[in-house]
Amino acid sequence: MKDGFLLIDKESDYTSRDVCNIIAKIFDAKKVGHAGTLDPFATGLLIVALNNATKTLSYIEGQYKTYEATLLLGTKTSSGDLTGEVIENKEVGNITKEDVMDIFSSLIGESEQTVPKTSAVHVNGRKLYHYAHLNQEVELPKRTIDIKELELLEFNLPVIRFKTTVSKGTYIRTLGETIAEKLGTVGHLTALRRTKILDLEVSNAKTIKELTPDCLIQTSDIVQKFIPLMYLPNEVELKKARHGGKLSLKLFPETMDLFCVVDDKKTAIAIYKYSELGYYECVRGINREDN
């Protein structure tokens, strides 16, 4: 059973789960998961984990992600993108490039965003898109999001192309609608591409058709981009880590908040964090002997 990661350039019309299912068959993997869902119409970088590597996904999902989006002004759809039905048309006024730049500047930083009804977020035990399909009313939750970057790539009314780097849980469809509203009109996304997660670039990713066994990346090579790797000084301490045991704070010169223990082959063993009780505690086994 091979563990590791794949950097996938997802094509449109596939769900993120579709990609995982296909990869499971190609690599004969028992477990396949992904970090950060991409809508079917969206393309771009999807980090896919195989087998034991899936145990590290929760530490990757929270990273900032970069997207490029195309916003068509003047038409609003039920989904916020080109897959939905048109529900409103509104004139696009005399918008200038400076207007757009001002709006972009105002959106930088933390704010609250309403989760779209077409999302898979659970409310009262049911995914929101189920309410949408049944035309049932439901109170939509809000999330605090952080927009680190919002850059204008193209201004050719009624089309605006932009690049943005955002925190986990940010809906770019909703961001597009917000931009349109602040410009005095409506709009929806006609294209969306994820280009980057931390320093992982879509230019280094492969489409499903391009995949080969050589594309599989060692778990620790991806984990180290998000969590420090730490080698233990001897086999005794390494054996403790393999069994999820406590580790002494004296193992390292400086106190570590969170780290991944690896062996001499860089095999990821377990993730540990600092405990106020005076030791490092195992919070996630990856390749532990008691798994």
Could you give a quick summary of the protein structure above?
With 291 residues, the protein is of the alpha+beta class.
Description:
The protein has 291 residues and is of the alpha+beta class. The chain is 18% helix and 36% strand.
Number of domains: 3
> Span between N and C termini?
14 Å
- Strand content bin: 35-45%
Mean pLDDT, nearest integer? Answer: 91
Q: Quaternary arrangement of the chains shown? A: single chain
CATH topology of the largest domain: Pseudouridine synthase
Give the strand tally: 17
How many individual helices? Answer: 6
Low-confidence parts lasting 5 or more residues at pLDDT below 50?
A: none
Q: Give the second-level CATH assignment, the architecture of the largest domain.
A: 2-Layer Sandwich
- What kind of sheet is the major sheet? 9 strands, mixed
Features:
Pseudouridine synthase, 18% helix, nine-stranded mixed sheet, Archaeosine Trna-guanine Transglycosylase, Chain: A, domain 4, 3 domains, 291 residues, alpha+beta, four-stranded mixed sheet
Helix-strand blueprint:
Blueprint: E1 4-10, H1 16-27, E2 32-35, E3 43-50, E4 65-73, E5 75-77, E6 86-89, H2 97-107, E7 109-114, E8 122-123, E9 126-127, H3 128-133, E10 142-156, E11 159-166, H4 172-182, E12 187-197, E13 200-201, H5 219-223, E14 229-231, H6 235-242, E15 258-262, E16 268-275, E17 279-285
Parallel strand pairs: 3-12, 14-15
Antiparallel strand pairs: 1-3, 2-3, 4-11, 4-12, 5-6, 7-10, 8-9, 10-11, 12-13, 15-16, 16-17
